[in-house]
Structures are given as C-alpha cells and as structure tokens.
Task: structure prediction
Amino acid sequence: MNESAGLSGPPGNDGPPGSAPGTAADEAADEAAEAAETVEAATAGFRAAWTAMLRTGHGAAVRPGVLNPLTARTADLLHRAAREHPFRPELAGQAGALLIDNQFTDPQLLADAVQLIQRQAVPDERGPALSGAFAAGWAAALRERTLREQEAIRLAADTARQEVEKALRVSEARFRALFESAAIGIGLGDTDGNILAVNRALGEIFGGGPEDMTGVRVNDLVHPDDTPGVWEAYEELISGKREYFQFDKPYYRRDGEVVWTHLTVSLIRDDDGAPLYQVAMLEDVTDRYRLQERLRHQATHDPLTGLPNRAAFFERLEKLFEEPEPDVRFGLCYVDLDGFKVVNDSLGHDMGDQLLTVVARRLENALSPLGHMVARLGGDEFVVLLENCRGEQEAVAAAKTVLAALTKPVVIGDHRLAVGASVGVLERRIATTTPGAAVRAADLTLYRAKEAGRGRWTLFDPKENARAVSRYAVSVRMPAALDRGEFFIDYQPMVDLASGAMTGVEALVRWRHPQLGVLGPEEFVGVAEETGLIMPLGRWVLEQACEQAADWVARFGDRAPKLSVNLAVRQARNAGLVGDVERTLRSTGLDPSMLQLEITESTVVGPEDEALKALHALVDMGVSLSVDDFGTGWSNLAYLRDLPVSNLKIAGSFVGDLHDPAKDTHLGWRIVSGLVSLAHTLGLSVTAEGVESRADAERLRLMGCDLAQGWHFGRPARPAEIARRIAEADLEAAPDPEFGYES
Amino acid sequence: MARPNWVPAGTDLDKPNAARVYDYYLGGSHNFEVDRQMARKAIELWPDLPKIMRANRAFLRRATQFAAEEGISRFLDIGSGIPTFGAVHEVAREYQPGARVVYIDMDPVAVAHSRLILADDPLSQVVDADLRNTDDLLARPEVEELLAPGEPVAVILNAVLHFVTDADDPAKILAKLREALPSGSILILSHASLEGRPDQAGSHQSLYRSTPTPLTMRSREQITAFFEGYDLVEPGVVYLPEWRPDDAESVGPHPERMTGMAGVGRLS
Result:
C-alpha cells in the first residue's frame, strides 16, 4: 500500500531524485530555492485551473458555500499528495472521493482532472501514481455512491409500491364494503350477459344469497310483465348504443314470488371506448308497486265483488275503439238480475250483497276462462265484454253461459235464492258504432229481454232498438204525464166459466202518450217501477178503479163486477199500502169484498217477509188477494200455503202454449190441469188468463177452472163498454150466445 | 385527467419517469434502466441536455438563494422530483437557518425517496399531490400549515409546468396558486422552451410522449404570461444561465443553447 511505503520513506531508490546525498550544499540550496519558486508558481497555476474546472459543468449547480470549500480542500489534498514526503497517494484518492460526494460524477470531469494532475510538475516520478490514486479514489467513491443510490431508489420504489398496494387494498376494501353493504342491489355483468358479481342486497332481492346468482345470465331474468322496451334498451346498452337505462322491472324470486324493482343499468367502457361491463342497480320497490297496484285496483274495481267496475269497463271498451282494425268485432252482454230488488228489500242489503258476490264469482268463473271481461256496472247490473268477437254466435253463447251460470240457486245461510237474469246481447263491428251508443243499445236490448219474460237473452235488433229508444222518451215524460192526466184505465172482463157470467173485471192502466199513442202497462210499468213512479201511479189507479167499481155497484147492485187491481211489488212492500187501500175504500165507498188485489209470486219471498203482514191486514179488512202470473216466477209452494190468497191466476203463457206446434199439447194441458188441482187442494179458486178460443174455454171449464179471461171473453174495454155489457147481461139474463156452451 | 383522491396512483416502473430521468441527466443513480434508456436516447438526439439540466439546477440554486436573501423562509417546491444534491432546504438554510420546505410531487417513487431522505428533517415535509388538481394540493394540511401564518412564501415551479398541457389550463392553475399566496410571496419558475433550439424541440417533445408526463414546450411570451399578477424581478424571463449569474463567465458563450427559460416574480 502506498501509504505504508511512503511512511517507511527513508531515502531510497524510490526517493525523490533531488535529495540524493553527496552533492554540494550551495548548489543544493540554490537549486532548492529555484525549485521552490517554480513549485510555488506551478501550484498557483494548478489551483486556478482546478477551480475553473470545478466551476463549469456540474459545479454551476453547486452553491458557493459548498463549492468554494470543496475546491480549496481538493486542491489542497492534491497538492499535499504531489509534494509531501513521504508520498501519500491516498490523499489524491480522498480528493476524488470528495468530488463524488458532491456529485461530480461526470466522467468528463475525471478526464479533465487527470489531465490537470498530470500536467503539473511533481517530484520523484510520482505523477502516474498520483493520477492513478485520484482516479481510483473517484471511481471507488462513484461505485459506492451508485450502489447506495440504486439501493435508495429501489427502496423508494418498493416503499412507494407497498404504499400504493396498501392504498389499493384500503381502497378495494372500501369499495368492497360499499359494494357488499350497499342497501341497493348491485350486480356486475359482462356484455355477453354473464353475471360476474352481485352484492348481498341483490341476492336478497332474489330471495337468496349472492352465490345463488353465479352462473345466472341476464337473459334468464325475463319476466312476462316486463315493460315493453326494456330488452330493446338492454340490447342497445350492451352493444354500446346507449350509456344507461332505467325501468321498473319485475323478477321472479327463487321462491317463485315476484319482486318489483326500480332498475338502472349503466355501461362501463374500456379505455378505447368499447363496451366492457354492465352495472345493474336494483331497488326493491315491491311494496310501493303493490300499493300503487292496490290503489289502481281500488279505482278500477268494485269493492264488493272484486270485479272491474264501471270505470274500468268503459276504459277497456274505449281502448278497444281507439284504433280499431276495419273488421274487428266486439260483443256486449248486458246482464240484469231478475228479482234482485226483492231479495234486497226483503232479506236486507247484507243478503243482497252476498248474493251479488256469489253471482259475480259465478260470472267471473264462467266467462273469464273464455277470455271475456266481466264487470259490475252498479246495482245488479253486470256486463260481459267480448273482444275480437267472432260473430253473433259467440256473443249469444256468452249470454247463454251467463244464464247457465245462474241456473243453480244461490245458498246463503238458510236461504236458497233462485236467481235468474236477463241478458241483452249486442254484437257489432267496432267501426259501426261508438262505446256510448253500444252500451245504450245493449241496455235497451236487455229491457227487451226483461219484457219478453225473465231469464232469457235477447239479441240486439236495430228496429227494436229504435222503438226502445223512444221508450226512453217514455221514462223521461212519465212523471209529468200523471199530472197532465195522460193515464186512463181499461177493464177486461173476467168470466165465471160455470155460469158464463162476467163476474169481475181487471183494471188495466193505459197511457195516452202524446207522441207514441196509447201505451199498455207492459210498455211503461217496468219503467215506472224503476223510477219509483209506480207508487203515485199505483195509488192513482187504485183510486180511479175503486171509484169506477163503486159507481158500477151503485148502478148495478150485486150484478156489478168485482174489481181486480194489480199491485206492483214495490207497492205491496210499501208500508203505506194498507192505509192507502183503507182510505181509498172509505173515500169511494167500495165494499172491501168487491176488491181483489193481484200480487205476483215475487211479492212475498219468505215467511218472515214484512209484506206478509200487510197482506194479512188487507185480507182482514175484507179485501181478497190473487196471485197473478202464477207459474212463471217465484213458485215457492211452501210460501204459497202461508199466503192469505184466495185465487190463483194461471199465466197466459200456459194456455198460449197449448197452441204452440213446437210444444207438447198433451203435456201442456196436464200442467194446467195440475195447476188447477193444486189450487183447489190449497183451497183457492183458479183463473185462467189468455183464453182465446171457445174450445179452450170449454176444456178449462171441464177441468174445473173457476174463472177465465182473454180475448175470447172480451178485450180490455172502456168503462162504458163494461157498463153496457153488465146492462145487456142483466137484460138478457142469459149466457152470451157467443160463449158457445150451454149453462 | 385528475384522479380522485381515493384512487391510489400506480407505480409503473416499466415507464420512464421524468424525475428519475432528470436525476440521470444530473449524474445521479436514482434511476432505473428504463429511465436511463430514455435519457441516453434523448442525449443522443440532443447532447446538450445534461448541460441544460445542470443550468436549470443552477438557476434553482440561485433563485432559492435570492429568495432566502430576500428574507423568505417558507418554500413550496412543486414538482420537486428526487432532490439528491442542492435541495431547496439545504440552499435556503445557508441564509435562513429555520427555513421550512414542503416538497410536492405526484410520482410515488419520488415522494417515497424524498420521505426517506427527509425523514429526520422536522422542517421539511413531502406531499404526494398533483399540481393539476390545484384545489386538492392547496387543501393538504402541510400546505395549509405553510401558508397559514400569512408570511411570504416562495413557490417553486422548477421545470414542472412543461408537464402541464394546455388542456389542463396552466393559467388557471397559476391563478389558483396566486390567490392562495400571501403578499410578498415569490414565484420561481423555469420552463422548457421552444426558443433557442427550435430544431431540437420537436424530437425532444415526441420522446416524452411515451412517458406519463408528456412535454409541452412554450415560447418566452407564453412563459412570461405565467407571471401574470407578479412583478418580474430583474432580469425578467431569460435563458437559464442569464438569470442573475454568479459571475459573467458562468453565463457561457451561448446561453440560448440552454433552451430553458426562467424567471422570478414577486407578489406585491
């Protein structure tokens, strides 16, 4: 090592040449002084060059406070290494290292420095060793510095990476927590529709855990109630044509229940903008949806029966008319229950409501499977809507289905209620009518069905419709008609078959309508019942007829006919009936025994019926009662026994049927005969209506039928005509020869 | 462009990084092969680059010294990179022994390295922030703390604004910084320029395009405009060696070859 060699430096072979012993002292002193001068100058020159070299290049960036001491110190070290004895090359090495410590790392600097060091005059040939030591010191320090810095930057990079990874972990944990614990359902899928990840909330929406959604594809999540457009929007999204979409969408849960969600799906693109992922966010809005549905249901459904209500029916009907295809047809069955009012009035609204509920269920069960809509329009009115109807047959078939559904009696508690209905059927091309006109026409057709006799359907007929429309004019005008005296009464003879004598008359109200001419009771009594006008009208008829009958009694004594007056159901059930009759009899002076009131089978529906009391009161008063149209309606024979009636009137249809070629005449007669013997068994007299021929009259007489009326015995006539007949019979005192039988 | 705070930046060691490339230019070894490859390529195309970098470093040293001599003891060095020698706190403390410095860089490696070096210096702080997200930068506790007393601060934007593209609106960034600074504060700014060597500028810019920090060289006029709101200190915006040289010689015969421009402004 250089240092030890230097330190051992007694003069030797490697010592400086000028120090050789044996030369003259003077010479030596001179040379030394000269040399010292030269060295002095050389040293100053080296320092200046050294300083200039360090100032340029990297040195420009080193602050003077560092650079100046560094320059002085390195120059000093080099000077000592060059001059001092013994030769300590390590000092030059230290100078090189100091430069490196201050980042004089440019190799060019080493070249420049070695050049400077070599150029200066140095003693004893130490120049190369000096340069070498400087270069070695510089290089060794550079190597150390480089390794140190590499280690430092590596450490910094590792630290940074760890921090970034830690931050990423924290960030990922944060996102994972956000994803996992979000109350909203979140799912990630690729653009092929594979579901890649879902959070817990999403799993719960589907009624399971997140793991249950693995392997599920988006396309598996179709629901039949999906809003139109949702899947189109989905296709647009995954193909990159749209960024997001929002819909309310139903899904099947794992348990098969339906969950309604508010769904937002957005697209995630890669750096190049190509679709990469889809993110779905689902909020369970089932409760909200159900509430909305319930509110909507309540607004469109009848609370009692659960059927669509009037509003819903019209909404559907009008929708049908919105954009009709040219040949599309539709059908309406307008249904009205027969005898519902009686149930409601006699057994109470609660029973009526239960009956309506059962009827609604039956209609729904019978018609919904056929694809028809059943709605309740109000009261006991229902309607069946047939969309895309194939023709009249289908509409009629629906009407028949309605009637068939109501054939079986309805059992409510102890009551077996025979409920029937009348149906107006309308079947048209949509293009030929309007919703309003169609419903009105169906309604009018229903009335025709009612008039034709209950429990039947009637098909819409344009001519009938026109006539029925005018009947609307009837109902509108009727209230005023009574005040204006447009009503009058005809009387139809009732003949004792045994004697052939006219023993009674039936009062039949007529309306002389200013536009429509004379209308029979069958044309307006129904309307009067509906509107409630039947009450004042019935009272008026009773008064008029009783007054008339009293007049006949006054004129003809015991030959005056007994008066028969029809009592509408509503009248019979009116609390004021007994009072009305009593007052009328008193005011007209008619003997109660001269008055017979005709009620229908549906007037009384049970043993507890309030109407029964009134009927008993009337009978107690001396008025007699007859059941009109017996055999066509509410033929509850058990109740019949309890009714205080004294007469049955066999409906005209029974006798009329005897001449119907389509019907078994023999059977018809046996029925009539049966009815007669039944009446007699109950101790009642029998009146046959609708008798139109002598032969029938004779046969009825032989059968034991007590009384008869019909065209054969005389049409309804003005009171004057009746009076004339009484007088004639009185004069002749013999059976009318036209009756054609011997007494 | 700006990433949200809660998304950590990556440490992409596969790409050259401006701070480490700069270190290599300055003769340091705080760099990786990928940085050196880029630097060697750049030097091959433009052999003056190491000199330019040294000139830039020398300007930073002189300007810091100027600020400290003006009595400023608070420094905000944005884009500080890898401060291996002649770091701002060392230079400043020669004149202001209690000088505080907040070093800011967006490169996680540079930040980690600075923290390792400065771990034992209570008056120096290192913040990982992006100049382009200026509001976030100013809201960092270390920065707020530095600015809070209302004492003048020297903001150093040394060779960093050329990494801010026009799309990132450098004027707006400077305006935000200016608004945050107390009066008497100083802006120290150097910037790669098209002036001087337009022939070299194009290829050099294209080289930086592959880095996370593409280079935008600007004209003297554009660089001067960054001092809007400041009073420019003599000699204004000049080539790097021309700004208050230690002596006339150190400017060198061709200051324009040191294509960077520099200036110092004071906020009145």
